[in-house]
Amino acid sequence: MVVATQSVEELCINSIRFLAVDAIEKAKSGHPGLPMGAAPMAFVLWDQFMRFNPKNPKWFNRDRFVLSAGHGSMLQYALLHLTGYDSVSMDDIKNFRQWGSSTPGHPENFETDGIEVTTGPLGQGIANGVGLALAEAHLAAKFNKPDATIVDHYTYVILGDGCNMEGVSGEAASIAGHWGLGKLIALYDDNHISIDGSTDVAFTEDVSKRFEAYGWHVLHVENGNTDLEAIAAAIAEAKKVTDKPTMIKVTTIIGYGSPNKCNTAGIHGAALGGDEVKLTRENLGWGYEPFELPPEAVAHYRKAIERGASYQAEWEAALAQYKTKYPQESAEFEALTSNKLSSDWASVLPTYTPEDKALPTRKHSENCLNKLAPVLPGLIGGSADLTHSNLTELKGLGDFQKGQYQNRNIHFGVREHGMGAICNGIALHGSGLIPYGATFLIFTDYMRASIRLSALSRAGVVWVMTHDSVGQGEDGPTHQPIETLASLRAIPNLTVIRPADGNECSGAYKVAIERANQSAPSLLAFSRQNLPNLPGTSIEGVAKGAYTIVEAQGTPDLILIGTGSEVSLCVEAAKALESEGKKVRVVSMPSWEAFEAQDAAYKESVFPKAVAKRLAVEAAASFGWHKYIGTEGDTVTLDRYGASAPGGVCMEKFGFSVENVLEKAKALLSA
Known about the structure:
- The chain is built from 25 helices and 20 strands.
- The protein is α/β, with parallel strands linked by helices.
- The protein has 3 domains: 8-307, Rossmann fold (3-Layer(aba) Sandwich); 345-531, 3-Layer(aba) Sandwich (Rossmann fold); 542-670, Rossmann fold.
- A 6-stranded parallel β-sheet has the order 10-9-11-12-14-13, with helices on both faces. Strands 1-2-3-7-6 form a 5-stranded parallel β-sheet, with helices on both faces. It has a 5-stranded mixed β-sheet with strand order 16-18-17-19-20.
- Helix 1 (8-27) packs across helix 11, helix 2 (33-49) packs parallel to helix 3 and helix 5 (124-143) packs parallel to helix 7 (167-179).
- The longest helix is centred in the middle third of the chain and has 31 residues, at 295-325.
């Protein structure tokens, strides 16, 4: 076929399209429709507006790009390859969706340099983008000076109809409009097609009016298929609006260029097929072989390498001047963005003795947060409208609001899922910020996808959860977690910690901050009710996951294992049993995951195989405990929903009392 005469712009756009078409055809798997339709807007954005350095994907002041419609991943892989990122070679393009390639089916930030966030579930990407933009706004307010700007970048998002249908995008967009995040620009690929066909079957709202109601600046490009000037003009106008985020609706044809499948659901999530690929090549005048690129297009794209080096050099020069003018702020900026913790940061964590006042562990959590805030300048976060129940306010550090972006208390409103995705975006900004997000433990069900994605995408978030059991009390079964801990413990790379007292709360935060600094999330579960400070607990013990706090004289007859509020029941039961001549060890087990990370010798020292009689006590489901109690052990747990009554009454009625633990322990010992 003869190659049609095309402008450089057309060659560049069609290079994106056919890299996607060819890669998906070779894999026999993928979503070609979005890359084919969104190629023009993506080309204009990356070619004319985005500031990035392909040879240094982690350059701090780069613009962040998020493909929220992650199923169209070949759009982003094509852009990364064409602009010169080393992370996506032509071999990687050819091995799209194959084992070991850097081009998985959906963008994964931990697999591919140049991917900022993991965008598989729809709506997460735009919500992550809000977090990225929040991080930029916060750091700019904290470090920029009237005569020196070192934080100045945009967050650009391409999202689709599916993203706009998902509730998480609405939660995040609502709060982004409230905050007025002017450096967040979202391009909405308005193609009216989802897997079920035309979006008319389920999605007929006026998205533009909805975003206007959220407080966004809204624009519309009516012809996103060929009107490059209109796309560029819209992005330029968006950048002029600094007091609110912008949503640009770009109306496109999904699968643009495919004669028979464009504008149909058939091109959304399946390869075109050999015959249609041939027809599409002919229709778009593309006379190149699969994976062959026009030299003119490659040369044009690769100008990004030189531009990127220049952008970074300019920024480094500005940073050098900033360092001279503002040495203290510069040192703080460098320490934060290099992800360095001071050597003695953990020394501020409080310790307790049994004589200290009994408090809810949520109160100990508040104490830890406020001790840590001065020594961890990157600590930032808040609650989903439960600040004074979760006790998550950083005292004296102000509320993050429009025009007050330097402040560190974030009010997310009743938006658990949006909060989770925003926290992930803050963590993945890569600037040393440590976000925390808080709600009741039961409402992790509303944000499970975001928690799972923090673990998958290695986002260093601290999840602060309170009201961790039926001890929560009068609100009743809807607010009392039962199976929640077990389900959270099932998430790989998430460390769940349920501390027993003040020392263990400090230990929980030490683990969580260290993990956040290593790009890993933790979830801390705190009580509503008062708990005594116990002898034998320690900050160091929490890091081991399980440790002995009451030792028997000689080989134990029985091991009592507790977590959180039930550890004190085990301690009291052990005293009673010892008075009757029994040898009892009490193990506090705040974190299964931390314990599993210990070596075999340590595990044997805590749970000797020779001691088969073990009783686990936890005000939650029994699921999973059999790994630690073995075939001869038992549990005091709860495998039914709770009840509405005062917390102490609930605990007693459901068997979480010293008397019931004693009864179960004696039954084991006599068996």
